[in-house]
Design brief:
Elements lengths: L14 H15 L16 H22 L13 E2 H17 L6 H31 L2 E4 L8 E4 L13
Helix pairs in contact: 2-3, 2-4, 3-4
Length: 167
């Protein structure tokens, strides 16, 4: 029996439960890692890098398509065309194609070449359609751009999208 003059130590046995509850609460509040878009191989090397490369190509492609009017602006719901920004993203794909030559798998190289080529062809068609629509007064250039190089929206009475078949 301890001497009477020594202080008595009281241990709260609930501290473990409280610490565990706080730990679980903290773990629940942490952001979960983003899901992988494609399964990786056991080593996690080449397949993971390929997915990242494909994601980069998809990002640049999506941006080019958005600036070519194929994706409506999420704020307004209307398509917007900016030939300058579309060209910028297509050119970035070209730089990527040039700088990675010889370092890609055959499938990656073929995919990148195909996407860049198709975007270039669509850009040329769109440029012609925009120039014709501006000339006819169906759409008007906005901002500092002229001759269809800037952002283009439908003019009064115009269609909400450019008809590429009318070039």
């Amino acid at each position: 029996m301890p001497p009477a003059d020594e202080p008595k130590i009281i241990i709260d046995s609930d501290w473990k439960a409280q610490a565990q509850a706080e730990k679980e609460k903290l773990a629940a509040s942490k952001p979960k890692p983003a899901p992988k878009l494609a399964p990786t191989d056991a080593e996690g090397g080449e397949e993971e890098e390929r997915t990242r490369f494909d994601d980069l190509v998809a990002l640049l492609t999506q941006q080019a398509l958005a600036y070519m009017g194929y994706v409506p602006d999420p704020r307004t719901g209307q398509a917007m065309v900016s030939l300058e920004y579309a060209k910028l993203h297509i050119d970035m794909l070209g730089v990527l194609e040039e700088k990675t030559k010889g370092n890609l798998t055959e499938a990656e190289q073929a995919s990148l070449t195909r996407v860049a080529s198709e975007l270039r062809m669509a850009f040329v068609e769109l440029s012609k359609a925009v120039a014709k629509a501006v000339q006819e007064g169906r759409i008007k250039p906005m901002g500092g751009g002229g001759g269809g190089g800037g952002i283009v929206t439908p003019g009064a009475g115009g269609a909400s999208r450019l008809d590429l078949g009318s070039t």
